[in-house]
């Protein structure tokens, strides 16, 4: 039974009867629509992150047309609203600097227009959390439609599906084992169609989490970008969201504490990106959930990695899709999921995965045959009082308990200038520390956390070391990289107080990270510490610096994560 009539629609405030509606009605007529095409129909906003500067989303214009087809079929009125695209490759200094910008843009696009329901079109890393964060805060009926992943590729017989996967051949180019022609062939293959990275990086992790928490139609996150099922799902989402408007089904009805926990459990079972530890907390807070980094750690201890997908495993997303995709993986975890959670499909998560099955048991593993035991661990100690994270499934087992002398890089520029210097005093037991690359220090917390192995050690065959920073790393990255140290060094966190020659002790099994310096010495260093000059004097950068919270809080703005009610816009038409 529907809960709303045409008179209850939010858009009715714009298009209702009387002189105030004249301007809005006249503009719809100006756009070429006749009255019966919009009057009394739910207006469905399609927030589209298509852009020439985001090849991962190159197909989203056509995808929007499929959404519109579905909306028209169900009696709605579709309107497309372009939004900032955040192409991961081009946006500098980091797309993370602009995640909250897109979140705010999404929320305000919806607020200021006569929108009744929403379809979100995204996929490339930050677009998924950003679109969802804005939509959660606006709390209109919403479905998230992922872009899908690019075509997979092989090079010299090895499969890969991201820039990080390709860059592992860079030393071969430097060593003369690859010709320039071969390198250009590799470049051509990295992303050989529109769509997101073809591994379990941040994009695939976050689109899967959107589905796991109930915000996408079943199976949507496991469909390749160029697969016609993407258009079918887009049209289905268009039809479904119109019904959600009449039924008044909003994100607040879907995103319960249990839905967030489902998403976290799926994240670790996927061997998902460490970036999920930031984005999921931000999403949870927008939804009013108290889900925390500590909760993520507890889940990381309980649930092993089941998806045998790079970077934690062997295969790429196409093979994961062919093996049954996310619905099949969820059947392996069904005892650990809240199957009664409602989803945007109007069915429960349990109903959505009925009939799903694992087609290839090497790609999607069972709980008694996992790929790895832990995808995410949260460490605390005097170096990271509010926590930091590591991805054990993509790290070296022999470095999980390690103590070493630190080699410090003051910032990303210092790192670039000295990391490959033949004079760098470093050995394979050293602990590389990179600071001033956090949310404020970066600025924008770029993916600098996979600090390169110094050339002097790489030439000796060293392939991994303990590396610590307040940065993030790409979801496609790997290595014994401790990330997201909180509080960050830029604001005087303990990472700022580390000095050359100190030792740091990492103990992942016991979840500790310790700077081997006395409390008194740390207090004295803190008294000596002086902040650096601010990056920005004006504009978005200043707004970001003044409002962004720390990694363990999701790097949201406090003014945006607040659940305080925001009034609907006043409408005074021209009379
Ligand atoms: Fe767009 Fe990887 S660069 S998803």
Automatic annotation (TrEMBL):
Q: Which gene encodes it?
A: araD
What protein name is recorded for this chain?
L-arabinonate dehydratase
Domain Dihydroxy-acid/6-phosphogluconate dehydratase N-terminal intervals: 41-352
* Domain called Dihydroxy-acid/6-phosphogluconate dehydratase C-terminal: residue spans: 362-555
Q: Which family does it belong to?
A: Belongs to the IlvD/Edd family.
- Extract the Pfam families matched here: ILV_EDD_C, ILVD_EDD_N
> Which keywords does this chain's UniProt record carry?
Iron, Iron-sulfur, Lyase, Metal-binding
Q: What is the lineage of its organism?
A: Bacteria, Pseudomonadati, Pseudomonadota, Gammaproteobacteria, Alteromonadales
Q: Where is this region: Disordered?
A: 1-26
Basic and acidic residues bias (residue ranges): 1-11
Organism of derivation = Ferrimonas gelatinilytica
Annotated TM spans: none
């Amino acid at each position: 039974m529907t809960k709303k009539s045409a008179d209850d629609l939010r858009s009715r405030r714009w298009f209702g009867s009387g002189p105030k509606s004249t301007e809005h009605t006249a503009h719809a007529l100006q756009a070429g629509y006749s009255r019966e095409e919009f009057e009394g129909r739910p207006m469905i906003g399609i927030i589209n992150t298509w852009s020439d500067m985001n090849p991962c989303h190159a197909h989203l214009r056509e995808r929007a047309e499929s959404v519109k087809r579905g909306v028209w079929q169900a009696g709605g009125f579709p309107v497309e609203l372009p939004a900032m695209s955040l192409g991961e490759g081009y946006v500098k200094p980091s797309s993370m600097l602009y995640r909250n910008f897109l979140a705010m843009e999404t929320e305000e696009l919806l607020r200021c227009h006569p929108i009744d329901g929403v379809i979100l079109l995204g996929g490339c890393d930050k677009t998924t959390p950003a679109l969802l964060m804005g939509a959660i805060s606006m709390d209109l009926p919403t479905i998230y439609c992922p872009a899908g992943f690019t075509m997979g590729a092989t090079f010299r017989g090895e499969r890969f599906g991201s820039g990080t996967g390709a860059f592992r051949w860079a030393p071969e180019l430097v060593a003369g084992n690859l010709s320039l022609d071969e390198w250009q062939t590799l470049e051509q293959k990295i992303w050989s169609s529109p769509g997101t990275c073809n591994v379990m990086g941040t994009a695939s992790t976050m689109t899967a989490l959107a589905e796991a928490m109930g915000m996408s139609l079943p199976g949507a996150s496991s469909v390749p970008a160029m697969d016609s099922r993407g258009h079918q799902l887009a049209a289905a989402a268009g039809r479904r969201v119109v019904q959600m408007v009449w039924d008044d089904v909003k994100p607040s009805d879907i995103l319960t504490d249990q839905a967030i926990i489902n998403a976290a459990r799926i994240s670790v079972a996927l061997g998902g990106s460490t970036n999920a530890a930031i984005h999921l907390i931000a999403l949870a807070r927008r939804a009013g959930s108290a889900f925390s980094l500590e909760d993520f750690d507890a889940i990381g201890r309980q649930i092993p990695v089941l998806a045998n997908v790079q970077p934690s495993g062997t295969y790429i997303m196409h093979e994961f899709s062919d093996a049954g995709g996310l619905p099949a993986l969820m059947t392996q975890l069904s005892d650990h999921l809240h199957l009664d959670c409602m989803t945007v499909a109007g069915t429960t998560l349990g109903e959505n995965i009925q009939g799903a099955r694992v087609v290839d048991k090497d790609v999607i593993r069972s709980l008694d045959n996992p790929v790895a035991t832990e995808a995410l661990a949260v460490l605390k100690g005097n170096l990271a009082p509010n926590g930091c994270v590591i991805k054990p499934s993509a790290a070296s087992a022999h470095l999980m308990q390690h103590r070493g002398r630190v080699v410090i890089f003051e910032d990303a520029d210092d790192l670039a200038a000295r990391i490959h210097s033949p004079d760098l005093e470093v050995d394979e037991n050293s602990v590389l520390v990179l600071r001033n690359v956090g949310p404020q220090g970066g600025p924008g917390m770029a993916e600098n956390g996979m600090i390169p192995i110094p050339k002097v050690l790489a030439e000796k065959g060293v392939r991994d070391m303990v590396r610590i920073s307040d940065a993030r790393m790409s979801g496609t990255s790997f290595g014994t990289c401790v990330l997201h140290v909180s509080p960050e060094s830029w604001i005087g966190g303990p990472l700022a107080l580390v000095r050359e020659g100190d030792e740091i002790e990492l103990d992942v099994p016991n979840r500790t990270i310790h700077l081997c310096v006395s409390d008194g010495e740390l207090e004295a260093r803190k008294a000596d510490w002086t902040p650096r000059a601010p990056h920005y004097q004006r504009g978005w950068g200043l707004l970001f610096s003044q409002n962004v919270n720390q990694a363990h809080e999701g790097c949201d703005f406090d003014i945006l994560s607040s659940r305080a009610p925001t009034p609907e816009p006043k409408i005074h038409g021209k009379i």
